[in-house]
Amino acid sequence: MELKEIQYFITIVNEKSFTRASKKLFVSQPALSLCLQRLEKELNAQLLFRDKSNFVLTPAGKLLFENGSRIIEMFHYMTQNIYDVVNFSDGVIRIGFSQFYGRYYSPELFRNFYTRYPGIHIELIEDFSNHLEDYILKDELDLCIIPLPVLSDSIAYVPLFQEKIYFAAPKEIYISIQNNSSNLPTIDLSLMKDQSYILLKKYQKIRRISDDICRDFGFSPNILFESQDMNTINNFIALNMGVGFVSDIIEQTSSVKDKVNYFRIDSDKAVRSFVIAYKKGTNLSSASKRFIDLAQECFSEI
Predict the structure, then answer these.
(1) Number of separate domains in the chain
(2) What is the CATH number of the domain that holds 183?
(3) 8 A C-beta contact, residue 164 and residue 270
(4) pLDDT grade, residue 74 (50/70/90)?
């Protein structure tokens, strides 16, 4: 049994017609019929029940179709990987990541990329997202992973994943919550209007989002102080110094969960999208395109 014969059989089934399969494969219908006969003889099993106008798969045919499809997919994946190793043996990609998000997401992403493309070197630039956008526009970066919205119409992007923004409060504060079926309770943020807030700096995107959320709940937060790092904010909240807003990655990885309660916020603004961005109109290198594909593959599991 050859791969070509498996591919012919799969195409016949997908097209539901020998005529359409013949046109798609640029093979004559008699050749397809002979291929099917050879497969049935080799497997000693009938693969299709046929009449003049239609056919259905036999149990053996269904097994060949399902397993054969996986074999063809694996073959294409293997040949693509071999092509990548041969043709992307060297080069450099300049990639931007924020220091905060980079510490959580870049190690696994870069490890997977180096495993697949060991000859490609990644030059990592860490900075705030608005600075990374400037570097993209100045051609000082090829790609960067940042949250929406982007600040320039000259930046194109591909979506990667969504981040949830949670409200965080020390366990010493009693909070009346809405019961729901989710893992985290939902808070009525208007009840927290008199608390002292520890927030990110005003120039950070998530700070603008948290200000908008507070405004939607009818108050302006009483700010105790500001930090540019959410881990710092989380640790101050654990010390009962105030309340604030943190990313879902903080809730997932926090070392002070025994001292902090995390809550969902009933607001569309409490979810934001992360993207991989590049300069619009740029002729991306093959290596950059491979990195984008791999990033989408990795983040699809988040």
Answers:
(1) 3
(2) 3.40.190.10
(3) yes
(4) confident
